[in-house]
Amino acid sequence: MSNMKEYSLPVPVKPPAEIESLELPVPPGLDETALKEDELVLFVGPQHGGSGHMRLIVRVHGDVIKEVIPDPGFVHRGMEKLAENRLYIQNIPLLERPAIMDCINFSLGYVRAIEKALDIEVPERARYIRTMMAEICRIGTHLYDAGILAVFLGHTTGFMWPFALRELTCEALMRVSGARITASYVVPGGVRRDVDRGTLNYINEAMTYIQHKLKDFERVFITNPVTIARMKDVAVLSKKEAIKYGLVGPFLRASGVEYDVRAIEPYDAYDELTWDVIVADDGDSYSRFLVRANEILQSISIIRQCVKALKEMPEGNIISADVAEKKKPAKPAKPKEGEGEKGENEKAEKDGKEEKKGLDSIKGAFFRIFGKLTLPRGEYTTLTEASRGTVLYTIVSDGQSNAPYRLRIVTPGWFYLKGFMESLKGCRLADLQAVYGSFGYFPPEADR
Fold it and tell me: Does the N-terminal or the C-terminal CB of the chain have fewer CB atoms within 10 Å?
């Protein structure tokens, strides 16, 4: 073997053209700059267990983060474009899905834009039911985020406890709407069905249990020394920076900005209830978590007030008269001259059969009420305080179609994505997941 000689063949070897065309999925020049600065460019996601469905391009010097560039869009579903090809009423199941657990708040923003366009006044009972259900979804979303944060920090018990509590909110949604998560419950003019006294009692009992167990969760996870050490004074954003980078919701309030759409521009029953806007001053990861933990207690208080008010109201008035009037069948036309009573009876019998056929069809009365819903020509915008912050809806109508000409939705995750990235500068690489969990970033929500 040692006597073997090497022979070189004059055959040029070139890499395949498809490999030559491949480039790193980073902004131009980033890899060269990192090389000159003795830095590394790392990719976190989209398959990473701690990045959801988003790629993070992280530039580090040692283990200190110098820059994080987001690369979202891996779960983009084109909801805005899909909405242009569906009836207004068909968009409710579509548009409640970006945040999944926060279905009521997301559908509420869309429905309120329709009500704004048609100048529909929602009955008092429906307004209180909507508010109650929105806060149930807020609790469910905050518990979900707390569980995911615990996983990111390696705390298994901190994951299982809030997810178990969240089952109570799913059960409440199911008893009211028939669905555990995507309720499709809020409709223009009110809600799809009333809430009986037995369900109200269950909701009250569930809130009592959640409030009781939150004390145990606080002892086990919220005030755990490891949780505090991993999040306190990490990824700090000052009040000025939070405003500059466009933070919204509890993440904005965690930096000392007292802004909540429910208080600034009240909708439904929020201005008739007593509750506090939770604010913190530190602007760090721990404050962002604490604000949401305390918001759960405020939501419980709001829900109890709604339950008490609903028990004192008469049942049944859950849809606006502006919408309900469309239920009334048209008056039968007068018989033509010469038809007499026989012609009138035959026409009435035919109308009865057609009515029964419509009621028995899969569309039924619901489609007859909302299927031809058409908005006046114009542009209609609403702001709604979803669980993770402000969600903006804009509907553009041509005044003729029963589908939106254009629909725009800006979700909380998209609003605060810039602030999330800026807060990571100067953090350790090991802190990335803790900061991620402190923002409760949900890629399907931002990508839409």
Answer: N
